[in-house]
Design a protein that fits this description.
Blueprint (H helix, E strand, L loop, with lengths): L8 H6 L3 H42 L5 H10 L1 H22 L6 H24 L2 H28 L9 H57 L2
Helix pairs in contact: 2-4, 2-6, 2-7, 3-4, 4-5, 4-7, 5-7, 6-7
């Protein structure tokens, strides 16, 4: 029997059954991975937002498009998503503009398709591993609940041969089982909060990208007149 003085969180984890320990270990590993991606995606999205603002400021300051395209081409890794979208569109525009027999609409549509393809790759990269956070947020509580149910079943099963059960006999087993649910919630709550926040941030960036594609397409169209 576990005495009340032994009912610290650590002692409850140590004295849990093998199945509950496995559940706790799995949830702890998942929680560690989710925190890793929470910090990594947070830094990536923040860097993407700053790079987008820097490029917009440079673009709308009246920079020469050819010179800007050259700068972005030489520093694609640090140019940010919007810079790479611009680079893809202007490169395709320059290539098609040098060909004879093409209508202006064909040139603009080609540049827009190139920007759209790069846009999709950039959004996919920003959204990478967010599905993992969503899965952790939705599944972890149920995994923890499974460990709790299993622990409570074991606790009551151990009382089958006891003539009279007391709260002191049942409480430790239930307490150690509930730790699994607590760990599951600890893994799920930050993952859900981070997922919702990051999806919102990516949506905001995607709107800025789409607006730029349309505005830049209009600028290119005016150059063909």
């Amino acid at each position: 029997m576990i005495h009340t003085g032994d009912m610290s969180i650590l002692s409850l984890i140590v004295q849990a059954s093998l199945v509950v320990k496995c559940v706790m270990a799995m949830l702890a590993g998942v929680s560690f991975m989710s925190w890793y991606w929470i910090f990594r995606k947070g830094l990536a999205i923040s860097a993407g937002r700053n790079a987008t603002s820097d490029f917009e400021q440079q673009f709308w300051s009246g920079s020469d498009l050819v010179q800007l395209h050259r700068q972005v081409s030489q520093n694609r890794e640090t140019a940010g998503s919007l810079g790479r979208i611009f680079e893809a569109g202007f490169r395709e525009f320059s290539k098609l503009h040098g060909q004879k027999g093409l209508e202006p609409a064909d040139i603009i549509n080609g540049a827009r398709r190139a920007m759209r393809a790069t846009y999709q790759r950039e959004i996919d990269d920003l959204e990478a591993h967010l599905a993992f956070l969503a899965s952790v947020g939705s599944v972890s509580p149920y995994v923890g609940l499974f460990g709790t149910v299993w622990g409570i079943m074991n606790s009551f099963r151990g009382l089958g041969n006891v003539a009279s059960a007391t709260l002191a006999q049942v409480a430790p087993g239930i307490a150690e089982a509930l730790v699994a649910t607590a760990i599951g919630l600890f893994a799920a709550i930050p993952a859900v909060v981070a997922y919702n926040r990051y999806i919102h941030d990516v949506d905001r960036l995607s709107i800025r990208f789409e607006s730029f594609i349309e505005e830049f397409s209009n600028i290119l169209q005016r150059q063909l007149r």
